[in-house]
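# step 3/5: fold
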Amino acid sequence: MKRKTFEEDACPVARSLEAVGDTWSVLIVRQAFAGDRRFGEFEKSLGIAKNILTDRLRKLVALGVLEQVPIEGSAHHEYALTGKGRGLYLVLMAIRQWGEGCGGPADYTLVDRRDRKPVRPLAFHAHDGRELGADDMELVPTAEVGKVRRARSTAG
């Protein structure tokens, strides 16, 4: 039985999980942010089997999350985050923040490079600056958002 693909799904969550929805892929991206660039570095830091690592690296390259970069003077290559891959930083830090809230110690603290102070937790903010919780938000069809804006502007 062939696994269903979500690459063309209308939902951005489903499409995103198609790209990096397994544990190994997420951890490979995490290690790329931590500075791992070579196959052996990923293998050692993650304790991952070579065949699984090969498969996930190929997938991340095919999806444009990582790119292969030649090593000068060598037949080998390294893996570097692309712009698309760097865009996952916020996602990884949100997952980390959620995990910290679920208990257990953290080995590292996310700090501002400039002043070395811990950064504030990620949060959603309304257009007027209010911090929003899950009960304060809802997903609505994009077309409806435009209708609401137009209705408000003609009512005033």
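# step 4/5: annotate
Strands lie at 66-70, 77-81, 124-125, 131-132.
# step 5/5: archive (pending)
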